[in-house]
Amino acid sequence: MVTGAGQGIGQAIAVALAERGATVIATDLKSPKETVNKIGSNAHAFQLDVMPAKQTFNGGYLNLELLIWNFEFLKNELQRTNRHHHF
Fold it and tell me: Per residue in 6-21, pLDDT tens?
């Protein structure tokens, strides 16, 4: 499963994993259909926001072997949601 797979690094990771034989679950804020179209039948697209603390993913996949937690975290988003974390 690759988060942030709709474009950029996340999309490149998802495509590279698929090229090496992985079945990819591609997720992003908007369903990453373009990424899945590039990969083909070895990929599934899901809309998923990784920011909410109580967000859950239930795609029916029981054998998740790798999770690539890739997303862009903007300072403005942190201020907007009133979350205070130190990185």
Answer: 999 999 999 999 999 9
Please state the domain extents for the chain. 8-80
Buried b (16+ CB within 10 A) or exposed e, 29-49: eeebebbbeebeeebbbbebe
- Residue ranges with strand state E in 1-87: 24-28, 43-47
In sequence order, the 6+-apart residues with CB closer than 8 A to the CB of 50 are: 3, 4, 27, 69, 71
Q: Is the pTM of this model over 0.90?
A: no
